[in-house]
């Protein structure tokens, strides 16, 4: 093949033209890409809601706490039925009597009690079951009617509401149990049943009982807790922990946290986790689950301080008939898990819980 033949090829001009078009197109595309790169606005970063992470002790920094308030809580919490509904309830008077017994227990059984004088320590049920047992995460009664009777490992038996109420009379109020046929017991149970009447049988509504807090990696420290107490609790509960009585000494204005008129060592609050959860979301008076003031660490430490002070003792020899059922923070041995009483009282609890769960699995297998 020679040059002449090549130039004589009738397709040659078309090929050259095509070539030129391709070159122009390539230049055009490159120019376009450069222009785009320069002028196209930076793609917007996707908007993230900052969810603050707790530190190793479960505490939030001040900045994170502020952020936490911005994160919307979409939970639908339980609320108590409206009292106006009672107007056409044949048990209205009984239910309202029950409410008064919960809110002003001392008026009936305290130092100047109308029903019994001095059959309890002078505290009210409401001191621990806030707002007459209706406050979200304030140890409310929303789940009682729906979950009792139930088996409780503490007694090793199926308990009805009467038994559970008397448990608090004998432990939290360090007093005498009520006759289950008494007018007062019937009223208390009617009120508690009415509170939970809209809850589906077997269910625990959102906001019942206590809100969980994170475990510490160390034992709770009562020296640190004492500092928290002095700063944030003592103004009401007093430096001696004994609280203050009202003017006519018939009931407490600020209930005691220890001493002869406090809950005894068989009570729910004597377990560190219950105390820490109650206090974190309810104390100092006025805080709530969405506006806590104490860090988790402060709540555990102040629990350790308060629960290491003197208080009445209960004979607990019949509690926890199966020792492997004792909760991780039950502070009295013997135990099956090998951890000491000291660790069961103050923690660290994580290892105990893990061991207990492993033992349960083994038992099932
Ligand atoms: C010193 C605090 C305190 C006082 C006072 C107190 N309780 Fe309690 N109560 C508790 C704690 C803590 C629990 C939860 C215990 C647990 O889960 O181990 C509880 C649990 C209960 C429960 C079971 C709740 C459930 O959802 O299972 C009932 C019912 C109850 N209390 C009734 C009463 C009544 C009635 C009174 C007054 C006569 C009273 N309590 C006084 C601290 C208290
Ligand atoms: C502004 C006063 C005030 C402050 C501060 C305060 N409390 Fe209370 N506390 C109360 C009152 C009042 C009650 C009873 C609530 C009721 O009956 O409605 C109560 C109840 C309690 C109870 C349950 C009842 C009992 O006596 O066992 C505990 C536990 C408790 N507080 C712990 C604390 C701790 C811990 C702090 C500090 C972190 C604290 N409180 C700070 C006023 C206060």
Distinctive features:
365 residues, mainly alpha, Cytochrome Bc1 Complex, Chain D, domain 2, 2 domains, two-stranded antiparallel ribbon, 15 helices, elongated, binds heme C
Biggest sheet, open or closed, and with what strands and sense? 2 strands, antiparallel
Find the CATH superfamily of the largest domain: Cytochrome c-like domain
How do the SSEs run, as a string of H and E?
A: HHHHHHHEEHHHHEEHHHH
The number of domains is: 2
Radius of gyration of CA atoms, rounded to a whole number: 33 Å
Which ligands does the model contain, each kind named once?
A: heme C
Strand content: under 5%
Q: Helicity, in percent?
A: 40-55%
Strand element count: 4
Q: What is the correct CATH architecture of the largest domain?
A: Orthogonal Bundle
CATH topology of the largest domain: Cytochrome Bc1 Complex, Chain D, domain 2
SSE class:
mainly alpha
CATH class value of the largest domain: Mainly Alpha
The CA-CA distance between the termini, in Å, is 89 Å
Q: What's the number of helices? A: 15
| Low-pLDDT segments | none
């Amino acid at each position: 093949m020679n040059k002449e033949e090549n130039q004589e090829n009738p397709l040659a001009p078309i090929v050259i033209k095509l070539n030129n078009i391709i070159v122009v197109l390539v230049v055009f595309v490159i120019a376009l890409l450069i222009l785009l790169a320069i002028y196209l606005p930076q793609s917007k970063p996707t908007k993230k809601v900052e969810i603050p992470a707790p530190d190793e002790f479960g505490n939030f920094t001040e900045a994170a706490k502020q952020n936490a308030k911005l994160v919307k809580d979409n939970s639908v919490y339980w609320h108590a039925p409206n009292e106006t509904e009672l107007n056409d309830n044949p048990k209205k008077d009984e239910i309202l009597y029950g409410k008064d017994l919960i809110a002003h227990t001392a008026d009936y059984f305290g130092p100047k009690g109308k029903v019994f004088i001095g059959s309890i320590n002078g505290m009210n049920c409401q001191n621990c079951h806030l707002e007459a047992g209706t406050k979200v995460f304030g140890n409310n009664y929303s789940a009682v009617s729906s979950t009792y009777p139930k088996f409780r490992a503490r007694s090793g038996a199926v308990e009805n509401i009467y038994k559970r109420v008397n448990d608090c009379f004998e432990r939290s109020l360090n007093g005498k149990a009520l006759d289950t046929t008494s007018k007062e017991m019937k009223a208390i149970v009617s009120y508690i049943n009415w509170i939970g009447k809209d809850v589906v049988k077997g269910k625990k509504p959102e906001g019942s009982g206590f809100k969980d807090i994170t475990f510490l990696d160390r034992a709770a420290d009562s020296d640190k807790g004492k500092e928290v107490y002095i700063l944030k609790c003592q103004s009401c509960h007093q430096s001696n922990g004994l609280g203050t009585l009202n003017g006519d000494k018939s009931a407490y204005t600020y209930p005691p946290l220890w001493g002869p008129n406090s809950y005894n060592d068989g009570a729910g609050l004597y377990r560190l986790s219950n105390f820490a959860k109650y206090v974190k979301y309810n104390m100092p008076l006025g805080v709530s689950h969405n506006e806590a003031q104490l860090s988790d660490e402060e709540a555990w430490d102040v629990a350790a301080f308060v629960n290491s002070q003197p208080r009445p003792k209960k004979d607990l020899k019949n509690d926890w008939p199966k020792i492997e059922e004792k909760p991780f923070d039950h502070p009295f041995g013997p135990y099956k898990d090998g951890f000491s009483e000291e660790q069961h009282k103050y923690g660290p609890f994580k290892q105990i819980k893990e061991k207990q769960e492993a033992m349960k699995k083994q038992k099932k297998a």
